Amino acid sequence: MKNLLIGFFPDPDRTDYPYNVNDDYQLVRSAADDVKIFNPNSSKEDNLIIKSKIIEIAWTDCYIVSKREGLKRRSDNSDSNQVTSEKVFDYWIFDTESSKVYGPLDDEAFEEQKEELGIPADLKLKDINLYMDK
Questions:
Q1: Alpha-carbon torsion (75, 57, 89, 119), positive or negative
Q2: Does residue 104 have a cis bond before it (omega within 30 degrees)?
Q3: For the chain, what is the domain count?
Q4: Closest CA to 56 of 17, 99, 27, 84
Q5: Strand, helix or coil at 89?
Q6: Would 3 be classed as within a structural domain?
Q7: What is the pLDDT of residues 35-51, one digit of tens each?
Q8: How far apart are CA 4 and CA 98, in angstroms?
Q9: Which of 47, 55, 104, 125 is most exposed, with the fewest beta carbons within 10 Å of its own?
Q10: Among 12, 20, 36, 48, which residue's Cα sits nearest to residue 134?
């Protein structure tokens, strides 16, 4: 009976993954609300580039762009767990050559910053789940 029940529940490890964005950076999902851009090769203590929860991503040779869904505390007490705030979004741009991070940006500032940096207008953000099975 125990084996039969296991088949009804998804294995949490099957949806947790690192995805190589390029030689130095990964999109890392370690929980449903913990999706971030990370440098696994960094010797720095702070190798987190863009914090959770990234929901869309795109990149060129020089830039990683992402859309992030805001997080909020689950409750007002001392519970430190966070859940998504489905009405709050921001955008981030990471210059992989200079290691400069631009963000958080709203829609308008994101488009202006992309244009200023010369990021192609046809570079479209894609849902991170498209990279899960690759």
A1: positive
A2: yes
A3: 1
A4: 27
A5: strand
A6: no
A7: 888 788 876 656 778 88
A8: 52
A9: 47
A10: 20
